[in-house]
Design goal:
alpha+beta; 4-stranded antiparallel sheet; two-stranded antiparallel ribbon; 6 strands; globular
Length: 77
Protein backbone atom coordinates (compact mmCIF):
# COMPACT_ATOMS: atom_id res chain seq x y z
CA UNK A 1 0.00 0.00 0.00
CA UNK A 2 2.93 2.38 0.63
CA UNK A 3 4.15 2.10 -2.98
CA UNK A 4 0.61 2.66 -4.30
CA UNK A 5 0.23 5.71 -2.06
CA UNK A 6 3.56 7.16 -3.23
CA UNK A 7 2.60 6.61 -6.89
CA UNK A 8 -0.79 8.23 -6.20
CA UNK A 9 0.85 11.34 -4.71
CA UNK A 10 3.42 11.63 -7.51
CA UNK A 11 0.75 11.30 -10.21
CA UNK A 12 -1.51 14.01 -8.70
CA UNK A 13 -2.02 17.04 -10.92
CA UNK A 14 -2.84 20.30 -9.15
CA UNK A 15 -5.61 22.50 -10.51
CA UNK A 16 -6.76 24.45 -12.20
CA UNK A 17 -6.94 21.91 -14.97
CA UNK A 18 -9.08 19.94 -17.36
CA UNK A 19 -9.56 16.20 -17.67
CA UNK A 20 -10.43 14.55 -20.96
CA UNK A 21 -13.00 11.83 -20.35
CA UNK A 22 -12.50 9.17 -23.03
CA UNK A 23 -12.63 11.79 -25.81
CA UNK A 24 -16.33 12.30 -25.00
CA UNK A 25 -16.26 15.17 -22.51
CA UNK A 26 -14.00 17.51 -20.58
CA UNK A 27 -14.20 18.07 -16.84
CA UNK A 28 -12.64 21.20 -15.33
CA UNK A 29 -11.34 21.22 -11.76
CA UNK A 30 -10.36 24.33 -9.78
CA UNK A 31 -7.04 25.41 -8.24
CA UNK A 32 -8.21 24.16 -4.85
CA UNK A 33 -8.40 20.54 -6.10
CA UNK A 34 -6.10 17.92 -7.58
CA UNK A 35 -6.68 15.08 -10.03
CA UNK A 36 -5.07 11.63 -10.02
CA UNK A 37 -5.21 9.71 -13.33
CA UNK A 38 -6.83 6.27 -13.59
CA UNK A 39 -3.72 4.07 -13.37
CA UNK A 40 -2.46 5.52 -10.07
CA UNK A 41 -5.99 5.83 -8.67
CA UNK A 42 -6.76 2.19 -9.53
CA UNK A 43 -3.59 0.94 -7.89
CA UNK A 44 -4.37 2.79 -4.66
CA UNK A 45 -8.01 1.68 -4.64
CA UNK A 46 -6.99 -1.96 -5.17
CA UNK A 47 -4.40 -1.72 -2.38
CA UNK A 48 -7.32 -0.78 -0.11
CA UNK A 49 -9.35 -3.80 -1.24
CA UNK A 50 -11.69 -1.95 -3.62
CA UNK A 51 -12.94 -3.36 -6.92
CA UNK A 52 -12.01 -1.23 -9.93
CA UNK A 53 -13.49 -1.26 -13.43
CA UNK A 54 -10.53 -0.22 -15.59
CA UNK A 55 -12.77 0.38 -18.61
CA UNK A 56 -14.76 3.08 -16.77
CA UNK A 57 -12.32 4.64 -14.30
CA UNK A 58 -11.17 8.14 -15.25
CA UNK A 59 -9.40 9.00 -11.99
CA UNK A 60 -9.95 10.72 -8.67
CA UNK A 61 -10.47 14.35 -7.67
CA UNK A 62 -9.89 15.64 -4.13
CA UNK A 63 -9.07 18.86 -2.31
CA UNK A 64 -5.42 19.90 -2.61
CA UNK A 65 -4.87 19.89 1.16
CA UNK A 66 -3.25 17.46 3.60
CA UNK A 67 -6.38 16.77 5.65
CA UNK A 68 -8.86 16.36 2.78
CA UNK A 69 -12.22 15.09 3.95
CA UNK A 70 -13.63 13.93 0.62
CA UNK A 71 -12.63 12.28 -2.63
CA UNK A 72 -14.59 11.85 -5.87
CA UNK A 73 -14.01 8.76 -7.96
CA UNK A 74 -14.63 9.77 -11.57
CA UNK A 75 -16.03 7.06 -13.84
CA UNK A 76 -17.53 7.15 -17.30
CA UNK A 77 -20.78 5.31 -17.95
Amino acid sequence: MIAASEEFNQAALSGPGQISIFNEATLAFPASDKFVPASAAARLLRSMGQTVDDKRLVGMIMPDEADAKWVAIVTFI
